[in-house]
């Protein structure tokens, strides 16, 4: 009787080349798509819901930049990381969508903030840029 050898698995081979990245272009394109979608959605919400919603969208679109320029917050500071992370505005958008509050400027502000983060990452800037 002969024993059969197990199938070759490159994950256990020390000599196997590392897995290749999908390409340096895939992540920025995904961020551009997110920027266009979120920005368009924020504009739609602003036009649909009035001036206060437009003001909230503009303020929160500028929030990461304002924190960096006027707040003295630079890379490495905890507030810099907070305003450049996707999770905080994402929680705002999802929380508004699922919650009982009916105040459209909150939702639009979250969309604009997400659009700004996506734009920064599409351009190769910001926290955790592509």
Automatic annotation (TrEMBL):
This is DUF4260 family protein. It comes from Thermocatellispora tengchongensis. Keywords: Membrane, Transmembrane, Transmembrane helix. The chain crosses the membrane at residues 25-44, 51-67, 87-115. Residues 1-20 are annotated as: Disordered. Residues 1-10 have a biased composition (Low complexity).
């Amino acid at each position: 009787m002969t024993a059969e050898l197990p199938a070759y698995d490159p994950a256990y081979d020390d000599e196997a080349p590392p897995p290749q990245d999908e390409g340096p272009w895939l992540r920025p394109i995904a961020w551009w798509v997110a920027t266009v979608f979120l920005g368009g959605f924020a504009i739609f919400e602003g036009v649909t819901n009035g001036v206060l919603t437009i003001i909230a969208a503009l303020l929160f679109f500028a929030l990461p930049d304002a924190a960096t320029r006027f707040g003295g917050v630079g890379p490495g500071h905890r507030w810099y990381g907070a305003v450049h992370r996707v999770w905080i505005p994402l929680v705002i958008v999802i929380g508004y969508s699922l919650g009982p509050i009916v105040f459209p400027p909150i939702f639009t502000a979250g969309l604009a903030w997400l659009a700004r983060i996506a734009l920064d990452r599409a351009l190769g800037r910001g926290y955790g840029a592509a």
